[in-house]
Design goal:
heterodimer, A: Urease, subunit C, domain 1, TIM Barrel, eight-stranded parallel beta sheet, 18 strands, B: 321 residues, alpha/beta, Rossmann fold, five-stranded parallel beta sheet, four-stranded parallel beta sheet, globular
Chain lengths: 424, 321
């Protein structure tokens, strides 16, 4: 099976490529970029003129629901959304129902992924059993079953001694810890940023310190234990500063930001509109600007979707009782491109934050169009406008504040291991 | 971020959810309309037929005596039929959602919901979800708003001190958890008060409290200087167990209003409290029952103000107050 992608603008940050040319794929792998291999006879040719050809996107934090939450979404519905968004690899957070804390659940996820025809779903194993924050999970067994990292999702670890031991144990098996810093007590069941907007609307709120204190503690433990840590969904300026300092100091850590934090602030929330209910909460304009700076200066190396599809009921209620999270796979690329048009980052940086950099975090041989790598490719038209509406939307969760808006940038083809999994 | 949900296309009141976004002239109209109802309570016949044939549901997801009773009396005096639903002990405890409760009541052809709920935004949510002909009056939602309480307090102030522009008002106590405080601050600022001052320890003040349009003091003795209106807030007992305050007695020592401390305010200052009072915690009995206290006046004014708001919100259905 041979496939050629013709005359697109190839942007492959890992290999420093940005030029018009063709990509050659055979047997699910990249064979060559630009130079035609001898005797290459493609079965399929994709015309990518005026389009951008880049590595398929890797999403570091996704919820696909299914299993105990199939009323919200299923693997089947969400992988269609992922494919339509140019995403070829997903990391599934462990707070599924049941929790990813045994090899059996990892097997079940693999099975669901195969059935949904989207095999590149990686499970993040629970750091603790049932994510209870008290007893260590069988991390080695989880790794052997295929878990790409461990983490405790949004659940707190009971105390720092347990976190220390969990990190030591993870480090013993060279497992990556994916950590969303949030001090349970300081967050105080908040549903909004502790600032002027929450004060005006009387919403229970969470200060930045809930994030930065947990981040600082985990950074100290990263040094103490030698555990590799990736910090997920950072939301404020002081977190970016802390990561910057830690990297300068020499700690092997990395961090990402959820795409909505780069575009929305507390001031964008229409009164009590549950579509804006996310955790960590939308913060201030200064935080947003600093997160953008953090990406531009590579302190933050990845952008994740933090996709959390919900059923309608989950978002119908008084704001504090609604469930947090946005359905955000399909807005990922257009919102990344908006960062480029707003001159926050370059197009090459944006693509790297969605491909080469998360691949490096996960130590995957992907996220690049390197010959021999799995042919995970995203082809998109950066100028094409589309409206976020039920006709264009694939995810079962319609919980997005961008509903009804016209966005720019649309994926025309997605290839996963050389197979076309999406065609517009 | 203004809130037009509560106004109809002609700018008239449709729902009454929050003071925020309402104009000075609309607030004045509420006070003037209340004025016309205020004398009625002393008449032998205490009823007007304005809302005859209308059905009002008092939907209380949180317990309340004073607010529910005055809403009920207000509705009765406007000749409406009133149903009291105490949801705290009703459907939702059986797992029925807020929305289902609303839908069921809608099917019974009601015209107005008076809503109290423990969560901020509940009244907004109901106003957004309910059938277009139904008006929603917020009788207190979480820590967000209690607009009728604010208006009855404005009404009480205006009876005694008609010129808002010269008034300095102190709000004392648990601002953080108080929907009353948020609505009072907005009403006072909209009506043009000279100063709204909040006096509390930092643990009972929300972040960026000055963004609400207030000055801040952590000291009652200093904070009461030049004050015309002293508004005390109720202190919930659970503030002690959640480490916001050390003890009731220390709170009383620092922030409790005594006769002696009241002397620091202007000599003709009035003392208000939305009730229920914790005697000896936030206020000394001698002050609560003293000559400067207008606390019971607030309660009786509650009826007239709630009549005014109900009548105005029903104007869209051909009711003229």
């Amino acid at each position: 099976m041979m496939l050629r992608i013709d005359q697109g603008r190839i942007i492959d940050p890992a290999n420093n490529i940005d030029r018009i040319g063709s990509v050659y794929i055979a047997d699910g792998k990249i064979v060559s970029v630009t130079d035609e291999p001898v005797g290459f006879k493609p079965d399929t040719v994709i015309d990518a003129e005026n389009q951008i050809v880049c590595p398929g996107f890797i999403d570091l934090s996704t919820r696909l629901r299914d299993m105990g939450h199939s009323r919200k979404a299923t693997f089947k519905s969400e992988v269609l959304a992922a494919a339509a968004a140019g995403i070829t690899t997903l990391c599934l957070q462990p707070d599924t129902v049941p929790v990813i804390d045994t090899p059996a659940v990892v097997e079940l996820i693999k099975e669901l992924a195969e059935k949904a025809d989207y095999p590149q779903i990686y499970a993040v194993g629970g750091l603790t059993q049932k994510l209870d924050g008290a007893e260590l999970s069988s991390m080695l067994s989880l790794k052997q079953a295929g878990c790409i990292a461990v983490g405790n999702a949004n659940q707190p670890v009971k105390n720092l001694l347990i976190l220390r031991r969990a990190m030591e144990y993870a480090a013993s098996h060279d497992l990556l810890l994916m950590f969303r810093p949030n001090d349970f007590w300081l967050s105080n069941n908040g549903c909004a940023h502790e600032g002027a907007v929450a004060t005006r609307y009387g919403l229970p709120s969470t200060p930045e310190a809930a994030e930065t204190i947990a981040l600082a503690q985990c950074l100290e433990l990263a040094e103490l234990t030698g555990c590799r840590v990736h910090f997920g969904q950072l939301s404020c300026k002081r977190s970016v500063i802390k990561i910057h300092q830690a990297k300068k100091y020499g700690l092997k850590v990395s961090a990402d930001v959820a795409i909505h934090q780069l575009h929305l602030t507390e001031n964008d929330m229409t009164p009590f509109d549950s579509a804006y209910h996310v955790l960590p909460p939308l913060r201030t304009e200064a935080d947003k600007q600093y997160l953008r700076k953090g990406l531009a200066g590579s302190t933050l190396n990845s952008i994740c979707s933090d996709h959390q599809p919900h059923d309608l009921d989950a978002k119908l209620g008084a704001f504090p009782e609604t469930e947090p999270g946005m359905s955000s796979l399909e807005t990922l690329l257009p919102l990344m491109l908006k960062l480029v048009t707003q001159h926050a980052i370059t197009l090459e940086q944006g693509i790297a934050c969605l491909s080469a950099n998360p691949a490096r975090v996960l130590r995957l041989n992907s996220g690049a169009l390197t010959p021999g790598f799995s042919a995970d490719v995203c082809i998109f038209d950066p100028e094409r406008e589309w409206q976020v509406n039920s006709e264009n939307w694939k995810s079962q969760g319609v919980n997005t504040p961008f509903w009804g808006q016209t966005l720019k940038g649309r994926v025309t083809h997605t290839l996963q291991a050389g197979r076309i999994i999406h065609r517009l | 971020m203004t809130d037009n949900l509560q106004l109809n296309a002609e700018g008239k009141l449709k729902h009454f959810l929050t003071i925020e976004g309402l104009s000075k002239s609309l607030l004045t109209e509420i006070l003037d309309t209340a004025e016309s109802f205020a004398g009625m309570s002393e008449h032998q016949v205490k009823k007007v037929p304005l809302l005859r044939g209308k059905t009002i549901v008092n939907l209380f997801f949180e317990n309340s005596t004073r607010t529910r009773t005055t809403f009920e009396l207000a509705a009765t005096r406007l000749s409406a039929d009133v149903i009291n639903m105490n949801i705290a002990t009703s459907a939702t405890s059986k797992g029925e959602s807020l929305l289902d409760t609303i839908r069921n009541l809608e099917s019974m052809f009601v015209d107005m919901f008076v809503v109290r709920h423990a969560l901020s935004g509940a009244a907004h949510f109901i106003a957004q979800q309910t059938a277009p002909h139904i008006s929603v009056i917020n009788a207190g939602d979480g820590q967000h708003a209690h607009p009728t309480q604010a208006m009855l307090d404005m009404f009480t102030i205006r009876q005694i001190k008609p010129d808002f522009s010269s008034l300095r008002v102190a709000i004392i106590g648990d601002i953080l958890h108080s929907r009353v405080a948020r609505s009072e601050i907005q009403a006072l600022n909209t009506l043009g008060a000279a100063e709204v001052r909040v006096i509390a320890p930092k643990t009972l003040l929300p972040a960026h409290v000055e963004s609400l349009g207030v000055t801040v003091s952590h000291n009652l003795t200093e904070g009461l200087k030049d004050i015309d209106v002293v508004m005390m807030l109720r202190l919930q007992k659970e503030r002690m167990t959640s480490a916001l305050l050390p003890s009731e007695s220390e709170y009383f020592k620092c922030f409790g209003l005594t006769e002696e401390k009241l002397k620091i305010a202007k000599p003709d200052a009035i003392v208000m409290h939305p009730g229920p009072i914790n005697r000896g915690v936030e206020i000394d009995s001698k002050v609560a029952d003293g000559p400067q206290s207008v606390i019971l006046k607030q309660v009786s004014n509650g009826i007239a103000v709630r009549m005014a708001v109900m009548a105005m919100a029903m104007q869209k259905q051909g009711v003229t107050a």
